[in-house]
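Go through the following before class.
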Amino acid sequence: MKKKMLAVMMGVLLSAVALSGCEGKETTGSGRGTLTEAGTTPAAGGEDPENPGEAGPTPTPGQQAEDDVVYVDSIPDLIQAIKPDAKIVLKAGDYNISEYIQDVWNTDPDLWNKNHKYAEIREVYDGVELVIRGVEGLDIKGESDNCADVEIVTDPRYAAVMSFEGCDKLILSGMTMGHTDRGECWGSVIDLVDCDSIILNNMDLYGCGVIGLNLEYCSNFLRCTDVTIRDCSMGPLDNSNSRGEWKFYNCNLTGSESGGFFSSSNGLSLYFENCTFGDKETENFMFRDDTTTKNCTWGDVNTYPDYSEYVSEAPEAVDVNNLKVTAFDGDMLQYREWTGFEIVDDATGEIEETGQRVYFYSDGTGAMYDDMSESGFSWAVDSQYSAMITMDNNQGQFGVTIYLDKNDPLSPMFMVLSMNGKSFWYYS
């Protein structure tokens, strides 16, 4: 991560907006700072030199204004404009990422990826997704004060609407994002992996994203002002091994079907001010030791929650004859918890959990946990249908295979680890 600090003040960027997450109104509150905490996004056309104080004409989409802002009105132009310190303004309209990147994938994705330094198209279970990678100082915003005027969607249920990896000093503002299919899904709305210093302002993130905002191995800070995260199937936020301060001002976290699987990390703290929580979100965030709140509105919860409700439940039974092996990649192993189980009744397929958990990390390492011990390993995908786990300290190797229910594509995924003729089952 590059740690060069910017000296740009963000008074305008973090000026407050109403709880809807879209309409601008003035508010007060502490914690709004600079791009050690934020950055300034310019107005849409700059000042007209012949009429001081009045905005000049908006540039033609794709053109760069004198203040180095690029205005775009298509997904190809948006991707083309991505580079370090780019300031990109999206014209009002609806943008379906899948309509463009699926065509690219069907023609020559390798050539496309080779020609795009900071963007990659990669396959997920039911389609493809766009990943923005390794860019510092990127600022993408909608041109309107109403975030509903710019909406970005994706079709595949297993794809994030936008995914960022290794991006530092990232600013997103003035946009609405979600999936076209509001049913079951596994993709988050925004994925942030190994990113440093993130600002979201005036955003509306909606389900069926399994998680609205998913952060893994991120650091320094996250600042969300006037952001709505709503109607997600598993919750508004998730965290894996991130640290730093996450602060939310005038945000809505409402309507999700679960409180999420948000886990604590060493060095991570949460702060919510003037925020509104739904019932499920209240159950997950109101009682946390790592969370500070001020002037928040809570849902209808009056007792300490039972967190077991948010642990992924095992299927009651598994018919192994109804499973089919499926192709997979590293992304299908990562970003999820694999829970061990054994079949205790071959006739009914009844199962019991073993208490073991397996995690695959993006750096090629992983860990197995049970109630008594932890074992590390390294891993690599060696074909479209298999991967290999090499245990630390010469403890042997496991082959990895993934199965799905032939009749129910929305059922859990099943992973089998094989060693010396023995098989160990997991679900996710």
Summary: The chain has two domains: 69-308, 320-427. The longest helix spans residues 97-107. DSSP finds five helices and 28 strands in the chain.
